[in-house]
Amino acid sequence: MANYLSQSWLIDRRHALRAMGALISLPMLECMLPLRASEKMTATPKRSAFIYLANGVHSLNYQITKDGPDYQFSRSLKPLEKHRQSITPISGLYHAGSLGHHHECINAWLTGGKLGPTDRNTISVDQKMAEITAQHTRTSSMEIALNQESLAWTADGVRLPAMRRCSEIFASLFEEPKNGKSAQRRELRHKSSVLDANLTEVRRLEKKMGAEDKGRMDQYLTSVREAEIRTRRADIWLDTPLPKISEEDRKRTNRDIEPTKAGDYFRTVYDLMVLAFQTDTTRVATFSLGGEGAAFAIPEIGITESRHQLSHHGGDPGYIEKLTNYDTFAIEQYSYFLSRLAETKDFGGKPLLDSTMSLFGSGMTYGHGHGNANLPLVLAGGKDLGLRHGTHLDFNRKATTFKGYTFGQDGGLTTAHYQVCSRPVNTDAHMSNLLLLMAQRMGVEIDRFGDSNKVVAL
Amino acid sequence: MPYLGYLSRAFALITLSLSPISIVRAVEPYEAFLQKHCVRCHGPEKEKGDLRFDKLSRDFKLGLDTHHWAEAMENVNSGEMPPKKDKEPKPTQAEIAVFVTSLDGALKEGRASRQAARPVVSHYRLSRQEYQNTVYDLLGVRYDPAKQGELNEDTRWHGFERIGSELSLSPSHVDRYYRAAGVVLDRAFTTAGVETRKVRKTAKELLPDGGKWQQAILDRFGITRPLRSFIYPGAYTGNGPVALSTGWLGKGIGPEHSGLYKVRIKGSGIRPPGGQPAHLTIGIPAEGESGMATRLLGMDITAPEDHPEVYESQLYLDLPAGLRFSLEASHQLSGTHFNRLRPSTIFTHSSETMLTAPAFPQLFDDKGNGLYSLVLLDWIEWEGPLVSEAEKARRQGLLPPDNATPDVVAEFLQRFAERAWRRPVKKDELELYMQSYRAERKAGEKLADAYRVALQGVLTSRHFIYLVEGDKVARERLTQPELASRLSYFLWSSMPDDGLFTAAKDGKLSEEGLRNEVDRLLTDGKADRFVDDFARQWLQLHRVGMFPPDKKLYPAYEHWLETSLKAEPVEFFREVFAKNLSVDAFIDSDWTMANARLCEFYGLPEPKTAGFQRVSLKPEDHRGGLLTMGAVLGLTSDGTRHRPIHRGVWLSETIFGKTPPPPPANVPAIEPPTPQSPKASLRDKLAAHSKNPNCAACHAKIDPLGFAWDNYDAIGQWRSVEKVPAGTGADPTINPAGELPDGRAFKDSAGFKQLLLADRDAVAKAFVEHLCTYALRRVLTFDDKQDIDAIVAETKKHDYRLRDIVRAVASSELMRKR
Fold it and tell me: Which of B141, B185, B110, B164 is nearest to B454 (CA)?
């Protein structure tokens, strides 16, 4: 497996310039640095994955009520029990910008941005991470959404498009370039040439106009420039053989699965994420199990309603039961992902789980009333990145005004808990603080992210 | 909504009559509130939370302190401020309302002017739809940017897809534009040599093995009727007949054979008594057995069994492709015996099924009536790709001859760029692209291949993907070519044609000449694109089906119904436009545009002919105008329940052009009822919710606009009781009565429409504003007010007729300004 990480692809600058045709005015590009040159301190790559479950959860069956290391798993979180030492369930966080914005919460989940018809979103944490990891991998980041939109946003507040089908994801990672290397190189040369001309054209306009009033063109400029850098990177990667994927892995993952087989679909996407990390094809991935309006039904466990429909249960006990089963099912598949990461070794022989942080959760908590506080979140893995797991981290309990969870006679949480899920108990507990922690552990040098007010300690 | 800040007429009057900032400051309604309730702690004496209202910038246009103001509004709105323990008297509900409304207005106005701010050169990106139309009009190439993996979806602003400040660009957009240009050029270059083919497959040939043994059986029993294919609801995968297999068209069919195809089908439709007409769909099946991934075509097949007819349609095909038939109805067949319906099953006639296949599940009753919707197919025929002479003409002279000198190549490129960039282009502007060409030649490329790189550059240039207005020296007016583009993108959603280019070149786009061109554009068939695009965006039809209706609660809802519902308002708009009717029709009418499926849904008599047509309405039908169309009522619901507040907000934005202030973030949750509590209507539940004075201030204005439509459920069906899933007792009766903020009362939706008609000037004005927002691709500001008023005054003279309004906007002062 080690052969595809050899550095034989490193090319000298002259060769690259020849491949680029007439374009010799560019400074040394990041991509011409030796692999992991900027990462000499850590031998292992750092990786992150984000998984989104739409419409919140049935919080009365999800909430863990005891904090600290000897917490008890709730009914919905039970499937994660075997990973107890590798996970941290987190309660009490919220995005100030999403409160009151119903289903738009998915847009701010990884950005911590403000929502509204006239607010522009900000960069999502995965893209912030990709800014530093992109130079090391063939694919800068991977955006998957089984339907509706992706979770990833650029610095300009533009949403990145998502991949949906497993065969499409597989092709984006492992498919040989069409018509061989030289045809591909020629195609990249054309693209480089075109983008360079477009870029120069705008730069000339800029010169004419002076610094002010560039407005929109700044964005165009950064985007074309970035696209050009990617084209050059792709050209250099052409000389690196694609990672070899075993026939068994290929068969399992390079196929299309119908949405009626949700479990198989979820697990196969997880498998693809594991493959992408294992082969170091990318280090950052986001995965939406389905959008707020269209997350799948799960016929295999008797759920024929869409998730959105179940979340507006209107107090109906049958719907509530199904919603809980759905939550449990989705968490079970996430548990599968963690197991796969734990049993798969990276090229250094260590479990992928230790170098991969993952965050599972939702931007909503109480779907029936569109409550966006006390978000359901589980952080897992990433031991080598310094994360210490094993406890339930409860920000509700850190608030002095919190009077504790309210239990009924049957020992379960009462509907008063819906208030905790709708109005933040601990107003300082911003989810951006957690995203900031993850960004920092990835090596991103920032001390603020979104609306962070401090960093979560873990 | 396009007029941000114009929230109540009273408020608008105040700001308009007092424009200098210093005077406004003393009078702005929110200032009084600040003085009375806020400055005590956030002013010169105390500076709690580091916030001093007297020091915050009132220049909302500059927007320096917008976040502080927004926070203040939010905190007052949510009741956090002034603090509860404060000994001073609390603000009243009316005071809160005035404060929130006026501050929100000021903030929005400021935001609007920032959004509308025009730098010396402004760039408005083409929307995805406009890109599609433009490459078609430029090169005669059909390219669908909405297909997965092609261009990204446009960011909308209140439904509008083409607001410049919203259409931003990421590196992935650039990649996709580059790829799109490649696809477009491939099609332009390669389709030249592709021949049109025609192939017909009979029902017999559609059977596995060409139907040899089925025919043999028929022959043995002496049955002379020909074999027919049958398609039943739910049969669209594994089992159903293939509609197209790439191999039918011949060997070596690839992407270059993609294009427009004519499909003809001969068949009959069986309709069960009381059931729906058979609706046949052709599409790309989803992987496995879960239905259609993409529907390309749908038609009602209504010919009787013994008198089949030929149905014809055209569609764009991306080849290679495997297409299937499906039949959609609200009741799909299921059950093990239907598994016996295999492609190999013999079928000739409803009277002969027992004879030919004893195990055949029953599809007809003993009188020969169908038990289910079915299509009986005799043959299907495909013909294409169809390339019209007009399309070919657009590609003529695209490529320089093989022996062309660089100078000749440059001339070709210049000619192309002038059309692509929609303006005169100087040769030195193209020097960069000629450099690419020369570099490619040097690298050994053939002339055509090197030239293609230059063309691709022209198509990914900012001059192509943006509408560029302005120059390095600031000016107030558009140039003639800029005006030509603005007009054609307004009325055609695409680039100007040769006529419009020429008019611009000759400087004829003013006064008489401008009006003539506008008239010509409006009578051209391409004006249909305006109808499609504007109606969809104005009414926010993209929201239809965003939250798919609950199948158990709304079994009648299926894909064909949704498609029909979504088309109704657009067809209605088309009719009002074509007949130049008054925009009053949008509020109420005694007719609508419907097809058979919609007539069934609305309980109207079924039309005799297929497709959308004008049908008349009686008061007891409870329809008429846009507001009681299923699409509008559905898009403001959440798939499970109707949402009065969403309906109120939609109405306020779309019909009045006013966006209510956003809800406070920290609202306590509505808890679901317990199974023991009595059933309550959503209206009663919301009433409990808005007793809170902080909520009540705004909801008093929004909610009545929504409650008026409570007689329509989440998919727009009429009802008089509201079905409540949980609770005890009877389902509550609907109460659609209410009172507008100005005190006028209405009894129900019909009464509400009358009140709107009485406000027709306000409604028409809001409509003109929406139209201008669309045409100018930007948010309006107070600076535009005079021009808008002039358009409104002019069109009022002629009863606010739709076509007149569009014509007035297109030839207005406003259109000619930057």
Answer: B185
Residue with more model confidence, A80 or A258: A80
User: How many alpha carbons fall within 13 Å on the CB side of residue B130?
Assistant: 30
Q: What is the pLDDT of residues B597-623, one digit of tens each?
A: 999 999 999 888 888 999 999 999 999
Query: In angstroms, what separates the C-alpha of B226 from chain A's closest C-alpha?
Result: 37
In whole angstroms, what separates CA B451 from the centre of its chain? 37
**In whole angstroms, what is the distance from residue A122 CA to residue B39 CA?**
33
Per-residue confidence (pLDDT) for residue B498, from 0 to 100: 95
CB spacing of B641 vs A312 below 8 angstroms: yes
- Distance in Å, alpha carbon of B343 to nearest chain A alpha carbon: 22
Q: Where are the alpha helices (DSSP H) in B146-225?
A: 171-190, 203-206, 212-221
Q: How far apart are the first and last CA of chain B?
A: 21
Is residue B376 helix, strand or coil?
A: strand
Q: Do A198 and B457 touch (CB under 8 A)?
A: yes
Choose from B60, B73, B172 for mutation: most chain A CBs within 10 A.
B172
- C-alpha of B542 from chain center: 5
Residues of A in contact with B646 (CB under 8 A): none
Instruction: Tell the residue number behind the tokens 């349609």, with chain if given.
Output: B313
**Chain B residues within an 8 Å CB radius of A168:** 149
Judge if the upstream peptide bond of residue B385 is cis by omega within 30 degrees of 0. Answer: yes
Complex ipTM value? 0.78
Cβ contact (<8 Å) for A223 and B174?
yes
Nearest CA in chain B to A423: B666
Between B287, B433, B674, which is nearest A315 by CB?
Answer: B674
Distance CA A424, CA A419 (A): 8
- Interface contact flag, B119 A213, Cβ < 8 Å: yes
Residues of B in contact with A101 (CB under 8 A): 665
B666–A423 C-beta distance less than 8 A: yes
> Which is more confident, B803 or B45?
B803
Q: What is the pLDDT of residue A161?
A: 83
For residue B25, pLDDT over 50 is answered with no
pLDDT value, residue A5: 33
- Parallel/antiparallel/unpaired status of strands A47-52 and A284-288: parallel
What is the pTM for the complete model shown? Answer: 0.83
C-alpha B145/C-alpha B139 separation (Å) is 15
pLDDT digits (tens, 9 = 90+) for B557-611: 988 999 999 999 999 999 999 999 999 999 999 999 999 999 999 999 988 888 8
What's the mean pLDDT in A72-89? 97
Helix (H) or strand (E) holding B113: helix B93-116
Measured between CB atoms, which of B168, B287, B462 is closest to A156?
A: B168
A-chain CB neighbours of B432 within 8 Å are 197, 200-201
The pLDDT score that the predictor gives to residue B608 is 84
Amino acid at B13: L
Q: For B271-405, where are the E strands, in sequence order? A: 278-285, 292-301, 309-317, 322-327, 374-384
**Cβ distance B656 to B702 under 8 Å?**
no
Q: For the residues B19-26, what does the mean pLDDT come to?
A: 37
What are the backbone dihedrals phi and psi of residue A98, each rounded to the nearest 5 degrees, phi first?
Answer: -95, -15
The pLDDT of residue B9: 34
Interface size between A and B, measured as CB pairs under 8 A: 199
Contact yes or no for B140/B392 (Cβ under 8 A): yes
Of B772, B778, B701, nearest to B741 by C-alpha is: B701
B726 contacts in chain A (CB < 8 Å): 314-316
Q: Helix or strand or coil: residue B283?
A: strand
Q: What is residue B258's predicted lDDT score, i.e. its pLDDT?
A: 87
Q: Do B641 and A259 touch (CB under 8 A)?
A: no
**Yes or no, beta carbons of A368 and B672 under 8 Å apart:** yes
- Alpha carbon of B613 to those of A104, B279, B617, B624, B633: distances in Å? 38, 17, 13, 14, 21
